[in-house]
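Exercise 3.2. Students should predict the tertiary structure of the chain below and write it as structure tokens, then compare their answer with the key that follows.

Predict this chain's 3D structure.
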Amino acid sequence: MAYRETEKMRQRKAQARNKIIECTWECVAEGGFRSARITRIAGLAGVATGTIYRHFESREDLFAEIFRLATQREVDKVAEALSVPGNAVERLDGALRKFAQRALKGPMKAWALIAEPVDPKVEQERLVYRKAYASLFEKAIQDGIAEGSLSEQNARLSSTCLVGAISESLVGPLSPTQTNTTPGNDNNQDELVNAIVCFCIRGLTDSRS
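Answer key:
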């Protein structure tokens, strides 16, 4: 008789997989991908290291899955901010502001997602999600051109520039080696967010066709 997996066994496997994912993200949130050791993840999840490799073919596959899940949450937040009432400039301002504020609120998590040196599989996912952000911004820019709140411009190129500008501007402040800013200083963070958003919005509104 052929082996058939029971529903209870499937649920147990799913629970173990979810626990591994949860504990991996906990490690990444504390110290980035480089601190997420398989032995530590297994210990936190209460499983053997071999169990992890039954769910994920490699460490890189596990990290790529973690990256996908974590980044999708951030993409969803940007999409949510872009869906509120208002003209395109107001919505883009709110979305860029939310992106920067969330990054600064969880600097280690944001560093891991935005700039930490990672394995090729994770870097590939990073490129996928940069495109996802750009697609959201491109649609908002197109809306702004149509409604007249933004001048005629290459919406695709402008959206790519937005992603690059806001990501690059956060690399220094998010870096674990950064010592020029005081962690938790809300005034410094507000000033930084305002400067980043102002630069991005000016780039869009002052563009020339």
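Discussion points: The chain has a mean pLDDT of 92. The radius of gyration is 20 Å.
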